[in-house]
Fold this sequence. Notes:
It is a single chain. By secondary structure, this protein is an alpha+beta fold. It has 4 domains: about 10-80, Winged helix-like DNA-binding domain superfamily/Winged helix DNA-binding domain (Arc Repressor Mutant, subunit A, Orthogonal Bundle); about 85-135, no CATH class; about 155-235, Roll (SH3 type barrels); about 245-325, Alpha-Beta Plaits, CATH 3.30.70. It has helices at about 10-20, 30-35, 40-55, 85-100, 105-120, 125-135, 155-165, 230-235, 255-260, 285-295, 305-325, and strands at about 60, 70, 165-175, 175-185, 190-195, 205-210, 210-220, 245-250, 270, 280-285, 300-305. The chain starts with 9 loop residues before the first helix and ends with a helix.
Amino acid sequence: MEDKPRYSRTTDIVELMILMQSRVQGVSLNDIMKEFGVSRRTAERMRDSLMLAVPQVEEIENFKSREKYWGFPTAYMREIISFTPEEIANLENLKKYQQEQGTEDKAKIIEQTINKIRALSRKKLPQFDNAIEILMQTEGFVVQQTPRHKFDLNMLETIREAMTSNKKISAKYNNKNKVLAPYGLIYGAKVYLIGVEEDKGTNPYCYLLHKFSEVKITNETFDKGNFNLEEFSKKSFGVYQGECFDVKLLFSKNVADDVLNYHFHSTQKMKQNDDGTVTVKFKASGDKEILWHLFKWGEDVKILSPNTLKKEYIEMLENTLLNQKEK
């Protein structure tokens, strides 16, 4: 029988094993091509090399797809996977960052993940922990000026339970009774609950999470239809929804390098002009948040369109200047 061609990069084969173990449905050739950035022929060689080395790899039947998938039917990888100090230190720093941002719920989940990894890790030596500590001491975060509103983590768990079971919640919001269908959570400078309030139509609104209290799950279910949280988020410049603007900005050449490496919005298009300036276009709602953000660029940014946004910005600047001149 003719030998199948082998794939020589051992590190990629190990990563492919981990990828297969991490997905219940296994991986397809298209998954391998996308994950490793290789051609279909190379993906076939990687799969064949792994199957020759590890006979436990099996073809997994997938009733929802015509593609073939391969993976491990059992937890085969558990005994050979280990975690490095760099990986754990990175999670520790991520936890610290979430704490700095005031998102204690995210920090708690990361801490639980770290504890599980440590429990599974075969490296429980003092020098292993020392290496993690040294790595953490060599990395840090810039202090950011952001609001930090605290909220009850038990309340957050109740909201998450309601979201996963598609049940409405009753609560006090700014001390007013409300019943709403919780669609999702958005994390930014503040944490927002996206929901549809009873008796206010079908449009989702943004609610500040820290203003909720006395949250309870009701027996009333809801159907959010084709609502997509990611698509909802992309419509606005920040969080709040409103009129959509086709924004066109001109940045001076003084900040060109910063602008060209900056993410303003998912719809942005950039062009560096012959004189060194940069034109940025995007479509988004949230006029106040757009203007607040532009303020940080000072005299190096100019609103080219729309005129309504430009006039609003001029008015904001005039009011700011007037306020500073008042004694």
